[in-house]
Design goal:
By secondary structure, the protein is mainly α. It has four helices and three strands. β2 and β3 form a beta hairpin.
């Protein structure tokens, strides 16, 4: 599958062809996605803060999400949040607005 996406990217002259790294969090469903090391790491981080999150006030809860995002992005190499384009199967970085 990666070969097909790479060929498509080359034909389209896509500059920012993304290959997921071990620290990236992949959006989607299925065993491959859930077993990706970045997704597993995010789940471990989430479990560590789950009790504090549940007992936090509503206005403080967004801070927990922001801290998780910050930790993923501070890894070496930096973790990204990626989704797969349904038409091209190429990985794209998810913006904070999404």
């Amino acid at each position: 599958m990666i070969c097909i996406v790479f060929i498509y990217a080359m034909k389209r002259k896509v500059k920012d062809y993304i290959i997921p790294t071990e620290n990236d969090v992949l959006f989607g469903r299925g065993g491959k996605i859930s077993k990706h090391s970045g997704n597993e790491y995010l789940r471990r981080l989430s479990r560590k803060t789950a009790n504090d999150y549940r007992s936090a006030r509503k206005k403080d809860k967004p801070n927990f999400s922001q801290q998780l995002i910050k930790k993923i992005r501070s890894l070496k190499p930096p973790g990204r949040f990626l989704k797969q384009n349904e038409q091209t199967n190429a990985w794209e970085e998810v913006t904070e607005e999404e």
